[in-house]
Design goal:
It is a single chain. By secondary structure, the chain is α+β, with helices and mostly antiparallel strands. The protein folds into 2 domains: about 60 residues, no CATH class; about 110 residues, no CATH class. It is built from 7 helices and 4 strands, in the order αααββαααβαβ. The longest helix is centred in the N-terminal third of the chain and has 31 residues. The protein is elongated, with a radius of gyration of 22 Å. The chain starts with a helix and ends with a strand. The mean pLDDT is about 80.
Length: about 190
């Protein structure tokens, strides 16, 4: 009896992972190429995926992470860069907790900057408040880095950048280091 229950659970788990992976691959593909998911199978699948049981089970078991079109569904992470004169600085932390909190801050910036254009239209009324909020946080980080590094120039730039890794062709030609894609930058005027 225990073997049958274990076999049933393993079968359910494997089918669940396959089902969810197929769904996330298809939905990611449609979202990436801006194709409407209009098939009846896709609508039924979306309703099933959105049920409370499936959502809860997927969250607790880790099966809803998806291994699909972007295999696995991992987005780019960014970094914050502070420039003063010809020098570039990155935040340094004394504790793991500080580093974790800062990484959550960077993730929230990533979510905001990489948000789909359609979602931005819906949330447009709150964007101006969010932009002001993030600019204030940027300036706080800039002020800290300015003081920590005893910078001389009053005018500084703080930016959010994504890593742009070289393609395989570029890598074979000797380009091995990633470049930065600057998504957002503000100028700060700081004084000691």
């Amino acid at each position: 009896m225990k073997k049958k229950l274990l076999l049933a659970f393993i079968t359910f788990q494997i089918l669940f992972v396959l089902y969810f992976s197929c769904y996330t691959a298809y939905s990611s593909y449609c979202e990436f190429y801006k194709i409407k998911m209009d098939s009846s199978v896709a609508r039924i699948t979306k309703k099933l995926v959105d049920t409370k049981f499936i959502d809860t089970y997927g969250s607790f078991s880790g099966c809803n992470t998806g291994y699909g079109f972007f295999a696995p569904n991992v987005r780019s992470t960014g970094t914050i860069q502070f420039e003063n004169g010809n020098n570039t600085y990155y935040p340094k932390f004394k504790t793991n907790e500080a580093e974790n909190r800062f990484s959550v801050f960077v993730d929230k910036i990533s979510d905001f900057l990489l948000e789909d254009e359609e979602e931005k239209k819906v949330k447009n009324k709150n964007d101006s408040v969010k932009v002001k909020y993030y600019n204030l946080l940027y300036k706080a980080v800039a002020a800290r880095l300015f003081n920590e590094n005893m910078c001389n120039n009053k005018v500084s730039y703080i930016s959010y950048n994504l890593y742009d890794y070289p393609s395989l062709q570029q890598y074979t030609k000797g380009e091995k280091l990633p470049q930065f894609l600057r998504l957002y930058q503000i100028e700060t005027i700081l004084d000691e």
